Every structure is written in C-alpha cells, then in structure tokens.
Amino acid sequence: MNVYLRPDDEVVAAYTSLRSRVVELVLAQPADAADRPVPHCPAWSVGDLLAHMVGAPEDILAGRLDGVATDAWTQAQVDRHRGESLGVLADTWVSTAEEFDVVLTVIPAPVNSQIVLDATTHEHDLRHALGVPGARDDLAVTVALGWVLNTAEAASPGLAAQLVSSGLDNFDLLRACSGRRSRDQVAALGFDPDLLASLVDGSPVSVPSAAVDE
Questions:
Q1: pLDDT by residue (tens digit) across 53-93?
Q2: pLDDT of residue 202
Q3: Does residue 177 sit in helix, strand or coil?
C-alpha cells in the first residue's frame, strides 16, 4: 500500500506550480547567470541544469525513454539545448506545458511522483546556484518526499517510519535522502549517515564527498 505517496491531483499540481515558479525565477536572472556553476551538479552550469529540466518532459512526450534517468539520457538533453539562453529554455518549457500536463495526469504512481522528485531536487539545486532560496515548504517537497518514503518502505519495511522520526523537517529530510548532504552534514543533523548511504545506493544520486553549504 502506497501510504506515503500523495494523490495524483496533488502530484500534477506540484509539478505545474514548480514549472511556473522556476520559469519566473530564471527569467528574473541576468543573461550571464546561465554560466554559473551548480555546486550540487558540478558538471553542469545553471543553463545545463535548466536544459535537463526542460528536456525531461520533451523526451517523455517524444517517447525517448531508452536509458531514462541515466547520465546519458540527461546529458543528451543538455547537449540538445547547449548554448540556449535562459529565456529560450524557459519558453521551450512553457511550450510543452499544455501537452505534458495532460500526459502527467495519466502517468501512474509512483512514476509521476518520481518526476516531481527530480524536478524538485533540481529546483533547489538551481536556487542554491543562483542564491535565491525559497519554496522549501511547497507541495512539491511533500510530493517528492512521499516518493522517497514510499521507496524506502518498499526496500525495508519500517524504514520510512524511521526516516520520519529522524526529527528533520521535510526539506532537510528530502535533501539528505537525495544526495544533497555529505555524511558529515547528515551526522550533524542527527541523521545516521550509514542509513543515508543505504538509501541512495544503486540510485542515480550519490552522497557528496564534501559538504555543499546551503
């Protein structure tokens, strides 16, 4: 039973509001912000990260799902949009909205929540790179954490309850469980770093070797 997953209508609402929020954020940035490094995704710039966020729904709509969520799949999105301005990327994302939002309503759980997890993780990677924190109490965080807890419970019954009882707020728990906190940072939060490592083992994310202040 998927007790931690949020209802489908909340999943769709979380994604659509996140897209609007991120589009508004990047359109408010100077042109050279596209070249800023993203500490949580050190191989990418802000423009590269946004290209992935734009490219994921493009690929879903086009049926380009071979190797979905792999480094090669995401890098192809970055390469496809390389050199485009933040404004062009934002316009492209908005242009897919009407069609993608219909598709999102029929993508089954838990995959729909996983899409929100990826987008939410990268929204906050982007905000960190731009120095514009926010939306930490947003529905998207709740939906994304629901996917994490559901996955943890499926892997080890009782693990989700252990995570919830860690004392961390939803945002910090989500960031700890999505490879955005080092072992030392996790320990400082009172969270077991070995448990963290077991959560991300075998997933597309890994525990950073050094702290990224946020």
A1: 999 999 999 999 999 989 999 999 999 999 999 999 999 99
A2: 63
A3: helix
DSSP 5: S
Distance CA 176, CA 179 (A): 6
Q: Say if CB 30 and CB 70 are below 8 A apart.
A: no
* Positions of the chain with pLDDT under 50: none
CB contact at 8 A, 156 and 145: no
CA distance 203 to 103: 25
DSSP 37: B
204 near 179, Cβ under 8 Å? Answer: no
d(Cα 94, Cα 23) in Å, to the nearest integer? 8
pLDDT at residue number 96: 98
Q: What is the DSSP string of 102-138?
A: HHHTTSPTTHHHHHHHHHHHHHHHHHHHHT----TTS
What does the pLDDT read at residue 197? 75
Structure-block tokens of residue 157: 């019954």
Could you give the dihedral angle defined by the CA atoms of residues 89, 118, 3 and 21, in that order, rounded to the nearest 10 degrees? -40
DSSP count for the chain of H helices, then E strands: 11, 0
Look at residue 207 in the predicted model and tell me its pLDDT. Answer: 80
The residues pairing with 45 across neighbouring beta strands, listed in sequence order, are: 37
